[in-house]
Amino acid sequence: MVFTRGGVDESIHGVHLAVVDADGKLIASCGDPDLVTFPRSSSKPVQALPLALAAPELPSDELAIACASHAGTPEHLTAVMRLLERSGSTVADLRCGTHPPFDAVVAAELIRTGERPTPLHHNCSGKHAGMLLSCVLNGWPKEGYTEHGHPLQVRIRELHAELGGVSLEAVEAGTDGCSVPAFALPLGAAARIFAGLARPSGEYAEALERIFGAMTEHPFLVAGPGRLDTTLMPLVPGLVAKMGAEAFYGMGLRETPRGPLGIAFKIMDGGERARAHVALAVLEALGIPLTPEMQALAPATLHNWAGREVGGVRVELPLVWA
């Protein structure tokens, strides 16, 4: 996709994308659907699957926060604390590190009061709280839960392979910003994971259905005020969506002219400003009508601080249909 200024192409963001049907078959692509890349936080539904399997009665808001890249609002922190308490854990047990809250209002309030952020404010604290509870419920040690060799992380890697329809050897490992393993896999495999959320089947169907329900019922907890996951999911019936760092995005669609679909795309330069534009372009290409509310998430014109129109955005998404 292209950002223009004064009629001149100023910036270009290259996109690779894969679309699979409910059976996991590739039906459309842009660029390289076999590109091996890190879904980053788009993996959180998979990372929460051991929790969903071990805690079938877990309230949906707590399951949603385990899948979240949250903004650090009071609602987010309350849900994380409830999840921590279930495993007998405290904020001190979180190994995600600390950063200021994503929500500007909360971040400003911390500065005003002189408070320092804690690991609770980290956008991944819900995922980590869920991992601690997974450990307790599965009889695994909480100590070292972020390490690659820990039983929980070994299981999560296996689930990426199973749900992605690839061999375990095809799932490569790195370390994420919150210190847990980050797993890389082909775009088509990542799309299959989201297709599995759109139409759950097999031995994990019930747990995947609960994850889908939790994320779509509590979109605010999945991200936060003004963020793409939170704003987009309520606008598209049957859509589950999860952003990942460095401009990755995954979507599962239950209602399309082609039936349930899974979509995964990666913007190669990590240009996250392009994510909403690409997401809307692929939804439209798949037969989802764009409402004015959806179009407002990705304006086609660019304005400067004085409100003057200075450029535009041109989305070029040449889908190749299988």
Topology summary:
Blueprint: E1 2-5, E2 8-12, E3 15-21, E4 26-30, E5 36-37, H1 44-47, H2 49-54, H3 60-66, H4 74-86, H5 104-113, H6 125-138, H7 151-164, E6 172-175, E7 181-186, H8 187-198, H9 205-217, H10 219-222, H11 228-232, E8 239-244, E9 248-253, E10 261-267, H12 275-285, H13 292-295, E11 301-303, E12 309-314, E13 320-321
Antiparallel strand pairs: 1-2, 1-12, 3-4, 3-10, 4-13, 5-7, 6-7, 8-9, 9-10, 11-12
Helix pairs in contact: 3-4, 3-6, 3-9, 4-6, 7-8
Describe what you observe in this structure.
By secondary structure, the chain is α+β, with helices and mostly antiparallel strands. The chain has one domain: Beta-lactamase (3-Layer(aba) Sandwich), CATH 3.40.710. It contains 13 helices and 13 strands. The chain has helices at about 45, 50-55, 60-65, 75-85, 105-115, 125-140, 150-165, 185-200, 205-215, 220, 230, 275-285, 290-295, and strands at about 1-5, 10, 15-20, 25-30, 35, 170-175, 180-185, 240-245, 250-255, 260-265, 300-305, 310-315, 320. The longest helix is centred in the middle third of the chain and has 14 residues, at about 125-140. The two termini are about 20 Å apart. The model has no long low-confidence stretch (mean pLDDT about 95).
Arrangement of strands in the largest sheet: 8-9-10-3-4-13
User: Count of DSSP E strands?
Assistant: 13
User: Which percent range describes the beta-strand content?
Assistant: 15-25%
Element-level helix/strand string? EEEEEHHHHHHHEEHHHHEEEHHEEE
So, CATH architecture?
A: 3-Layer(aba) Sandwich
Quick one: biggest sheet?
6 strands, antiparallel
Radius of gyration: 19 Å
Percent helix range? 25-40%
**Regarding CATH, which class?**
Alpha Beta
Return residue spans where pLDDT drops below 50 for at least 5 consecutive residues: none
CATH topology: Beta-lactamase
Shape: globular
In round numbers, the mean pLDDT is: 97
Q: Tell me the count of domains.
A: 1
What is the CA-CA span between the terminal residues?
Answer: 22 Å
Instruction: Return the structural class.
Output: alpha+beta
Give the number of helices: 13
